[in-house]
Design a protein that fits this description.
By secondary structure, the protein is α+β, with helices and mostly antiparallel strands. It contains four helices and seven strands, in the order βαβββαβαββα. Strands 1-2-3-4-5-7-6 form a seven-stranded mixed β-sheet, sandwiched between helices. A hairpin with a 2-residue loop joins strand 6 and strand 7. The protein starts with 7 loop residues before the first strand and ends with a helix. The mean pLDDT is 93.
Length: 170
């Protein structure tokens, strides 16, 4: 099955949210039950890449979710001096590939797209010092370790960070 050429914001009228299954119940459930509502509330934005289809609701191959947040200065390992007040960041809260599309390199391509989206948001006026990832499990950590971009954030090994200056170079 061919895929569309770009990610779009999730829309329950156009996308088959309940048909998505990535094999991780919390990730599958988030898309089906919470992604649209979180977008409406302004909490996060979920982007989907769908299969090309003439169906009313298109099957989702992969999705990712971005949100904004702040962190305290003491948590950031920075080479430069930063102010003492909370530092803005982009949160990559979720990234999941449908079980039907796993093993095709979509996860890596989607991660690069999501990180570039974070850079574009920052350039467009949403200030962010970097991107923070909350890693779901050891499988996800293995995936992120392949990129050699992310550094541990705080004492939680399942929370990763990459500075926006690094992302601007990819």
């Amino acid at each position: 099955m061919s895929l569309e050429q770009t990610f779009v914001a999730v829309d329950k009228r156009l996308h088959d949210l309940k048909g998505f299954d990535c094999g991780k119940p919390s990730m599958t459930e988030f898309l089906a039950r919470h992604a649209v509502n979180h977008s409406k509330l302004g909490l996060s934005r979920t982007y989907v890449l769908t299969e090309q289809s003439d169906l009313k609701k298109k099957a989702i191959a992969v999705y990712f979710t971005l949100a904004t947040g702040t962190v305290v200065r003491a948590q950031i390992l920075a080479d430069q001096s930063l102010p003492a007040y909370p530092i803005p960041v982009v949160m990559l809260g979720r990234l999941a590939v449908s079980a039907h599309h796993q093993g095709l390199g979509l996860g890596a391509k989607s991660l690069v797209y999501a990180l570039r989206q974070a850079v574009e948001l920052s350039r467009a006026g949403l200030p962010a010092y970097g991107v923070i990832l909350d890693v779901l499990d050891s499988d996800a950590m293995t995936f992120y370790d392949h990129f050699d971009l992310f550094k541990p954030f705080t004492n939680d090994p399942m929370r990763l960070f990459v500075p926006m200056k690094t992302l601007e170079q990819i």
